[in-house]
Write a structure and sequence with these properties.
Layout (H helix, E strand, L loop, with lengths): L2 H12 L12 E6 L4 E5 L12 H11 L5 E7 L10 H8 L6 E6 L2 E6 H4 L7
Parallel strand pairs: 3-4
Antiparallel strand pairs: 1-2, 1-3, 4-5
C-alpha cells in the first residue's frame, strides 16, 4: 500500500478527534502485515490522564480485530509538521513491530522512520 494513502486516512480521521482542552487534533492509520488498515484519533478527557492518543486508539482497533503485526503507521496533525508519537505510544507500538515504518508529514513531503530509530532499546519481556 502506498504510504500517501495511509497519510490521507490519518488526515481524514484527525478531523474526528475530540480535543476540547488542547485543541490539538491527531489522526493515525495503521497498516498491518495482512494488508488491513485501522484508523484512530485522539480523544481527551477532563481528567487528563485518561486521554488516549490517536496511535493507541488505532492500535486498539487493530488488536480488537485480531491483528498483532503492524507494518506501518501514518500520524498526522493539522497543528504540527512531523507530528512524532509520544513516548507512551512508541512503547505500545514497539510491542507490535519495532521494524514498522512511522510515516510523518512535513509540509507536503512524507518522512519515514523505523520505529526502533525513534525508540531505541524499547522494553520487551
Amino acid at each position: 500500500m502506498d504510504y500517501k494513502v495511509l497519510m490521507e486516512e490519518a488526515e481524514k480521521v484527525s478531523t474526528k478527534a475530540y480535543a476540547p482542552y488542547s485543541n490539538f487534533s491527531v489522526g493515525a492509520c495503521i497498516l498491518t502485515s495482512s494488508g488491513k488498515t485501522y484508523t484512530g484519533c485522539n480523544f481527551e478527557n477532563s481528567s487528563f490522564g485518561l486521554t488516549i492518543c490517536a496511535e493507541r486508539n488505532a492500535a486498539g482497533s487493530a488488536i480488537a480485530d485480531g491483528e498483532r503485526n503492524f507494518k506501518a503507521i501514518a500520524i498526522y496533525s493539522p497543528k504540527r509538521d512531523l507530528c512524532y508519537p509520544c513516548g507512551a505510544c512508541l512503547q505500545v507500538l514497539h510491542e507490535f513491530g519495532e521494524d514498522m515504518d512511522v510515516i510523518l508529514k512535513s509540509e507536503q513531503e512524507l518522512k519515514t522512520y523505523k520505529l526502533k530509530e525513534l525508540l531505541p532499546g524499547g522494553f520487551r519481556l
